[in-house]
């Protein structure tokens, strides 16, 4: 029988090393010298979004804690809406002082394709004090059928 390319991929789960790394949320795990806090980010990061429908809108919602309104842009191109921005590091901590580093700092970009053509003039966006970006994209209006009456 041929070996699966995924054979052994989960074999470390349950091992003592895995159990030591699986600390409960909110606790720090001291990393060894051979184990950096995180890979140094390269390129552009990506943010999480929720997209849902409400009445005659598609709504895109993105939590953007630590992002300033002046560092946000929204671009529209046909069916694609792109959110770009930058999350600045509040203070510089030397890399070797981190126990755990999961937060992304730097430029980010997220593009979503919607099922309709987007009219940029009709898109509305708000950014509240809880740092939640909410973008309202109107759905395309349905073509109305007009009956032609016979007459003179």
TrEMBL record:
Q: Which InterPro entries match?
A: A-crystallin/Hsp20_dom, HSP20-like_chaperone, Small_HSP
* Alphabetical list of PROSITE patterns matching this protein: SHSP
**SHSP domain: which residues?**
40-152
Question: What protein family is recorded?
Answer: Belongs to the small heat shock protein (HSP20) family.
**Listed name of the protein:** SHSP domain-containing protein
Organism of provenance? Candidatus Peribacter riflensis
Tell me the lineage of the source organism.
Answer: Bacteria, Candidatus Peregrinibacteriota, Candidatus Peribacteria, Candidatus Peribacterales, Candidatus Peribacteraceae
């Amino acid at each position: 029988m041929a070996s699966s390319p995924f054979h052994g991929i989960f074999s470390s789960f349950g091992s003592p090393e895995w159990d030591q790394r699986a600390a409960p949320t909110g606790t720090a795990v001291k990393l060894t010298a051979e184990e950096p806090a995180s890979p140094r980010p390269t390129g552009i990061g990506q943010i999480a979004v929720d997209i849902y429908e409400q009445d005659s809108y598609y709504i895109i919602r993105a939590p953007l804690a630590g992002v300033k309104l002046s560092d946000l842009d929204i671009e529209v191109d046909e069916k694609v809406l792109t959110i770009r921005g930058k999350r600045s590091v509040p203070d510089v901590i030397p890399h070797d002082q981190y126990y755990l580093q999961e937060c992304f700092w730097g430029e980010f970009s997220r593009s979503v394709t919607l099922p309709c053509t987007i009219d940029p003039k009709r898109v509305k966006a708000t950014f509240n004090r809880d740092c939640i970006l909410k973008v309202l994209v109107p759905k395309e209006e349905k073509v109305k059928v007009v009956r032609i009456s016979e007459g003179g």
